[in-house]
Amino acid sequence: MTDAQQTAEASPDLTASEPSGPTPVPLLAPREGVPPVIADADALAEVVAAFAAAGGPVAVDAERASGYRYGQRAYLVQLRRRGAGTTLIDPVACPDLSALGSVLADTEWVLHAATQDLPCLRDIGLVPTRLFDTELAGRLAGFARVGLGVMVETVLGYSLEKGHSAVDWSTRPLPEPWLRYAALDVELLVDLRNALEDELRRQGKLEWALEEFAAIAAAPPPPPRKDPWRRTSGVHKVRRRRQLAVVRELWTARDQVAQRRDLSPGKVLSDAAIVAAAQAMPQDTRVLAALPGFGTRMGRRQLQLWQAAIDRARELAESQLPQPGQQTAGPPPPRAWAEKDPAAAARLAAARAAVTAHAETLRLPQENLLAPDVVRRLCWEPPTDRTPSALAPALRALGAREWQIGQTVDLLARALTD
């Protein structure tokens, strides 16, 4: 039995899904009040100097306008550090924060769900070299619910305001209640980080978490998604290749309009409307206007734009039509394994069961113990030598971290052999 298993079994259930202590205390305002929004070079220079002179980890958060604007850019950045207090920065007015990023380069950044915010922070010059992710820490510590509000309530005993998470952060000027909400998001983030570090150390999992955080900080930006139009919701209902071409042409036309108008693509044309048009293949704008999502409020010029996209798909040569299924590298979907390779299907069932059982023992999600894709790829094409010493480099090549290999390599060796 590992140290982590012994600690998990011996320790009280601090990770219940609901707070078990006193009623959380509402946190209504930041300790120093709501700071003014930094929106010019002089004010930003003062912030850079203040954060350079401050100490300890820096809490970082960003607000986007998902569902309202095109892309995932940041529309507000919040930071807090001991000795500097909280600052709110408008990255539209101050689009280059690399000077701030430079003075914080050797500082540990504390974020909640870091992978969500890192891309938009990178775009404005904020790139951490060390970080602590409080959401991931909560998962590894065994918390059933890891949203920031729930974590703050469960661990620190405070309740945060929850009303403004999905507002349009591109609004200018930003209302004071929104700014107060944003400032509170970083108010207790370092306190939460410290409490979670103590809990992870108590459970024997702190080194695991640090390895995960290092991997997030070192990860390169993801490559552009291939054939992003295939992620259109409901595209699985479209069977014929020419109809798929309609989805592709409409998606591309919509994306161009959304980018030009700086609107969320869903506000320009819904996915459901794209799928409906692909299934119906309308011959003219009169028929198109009768389809769901192309109602009477849509102007004639818009209808002509969408009809032109449909007509382009109709005129494509057969060789230019997309294939029904997206070709992906790696093993086939697990549901097809029993027919394609029964032995591989048996290996996968045994490996999944072993990983899931061990994850339950360790009180952490199975996908955090070992990514499901790693398990699938290993089971589909395992090494000829299935001893732990041979499986360890195979797991490493698939992206598994050292702590994950240490926790799973023996049980995977047994599963693949038996």
Give a short overview.
Helices cover 51% and strands 9% of the residues. The protein has helices at 3-10, 41-53, 98-103, 114-123, 134-141, 148-156, 176-187, 189-203, 206-218, 241-261, 265-268, 271-280, 285-289, 300-315, 337-340, 342-362, 366-369, 372-380, 388-397, 402-417; strands at residues 25-26, 37-38, 55-64, 74-82, 85-89, 108-111, 130-133, 158-159. It has 3 domains: 3-218, Ribonuclease H-like superfamily/Ribonuclease H (Nucleotidyltransferase, domain 5, 2-Layer Sandwich); 228-320, DNA polymerase, domain 1 (Orthogonal Bundle), CATH 1.10.150.80; 334-417, HRDC domain (DNA polymerase, domain 1, Orthogonal Bundle), CATH 1.10.150.
Salient structural properties:
alpha/beta, Nucleotidyltransferase, domain 5, DNA polymerase, domain 1, 3 domains, 6-stranded mixed β-sheet, 20 helices, 8 strands, 9% strand, disordered N terminus
- Counting structural domains, the number is 3
CATH homologous superfamily classification of the largest domain: Ribonuclease H-like superfamily/Ribonuclease H
Largest sheet: 6 strands, mixed
Order of helices and strands: HEEHEEEHEHEHHEHHHHHHHHHHHHHH
Shape: flat
What is the radius of gyration computed over CA atoms, rounded to a whole number of angstroms?
25 Å
CATH fold type of the largest domain: Nucleotidyltransferase, domain 5
Q: Which oligomerization state do the chains in this entry correspond to? A: single chain
| Number of beta-strand segments | 8
Question: What structural category do the secondary elements indicate?
Answer: alpha/beta
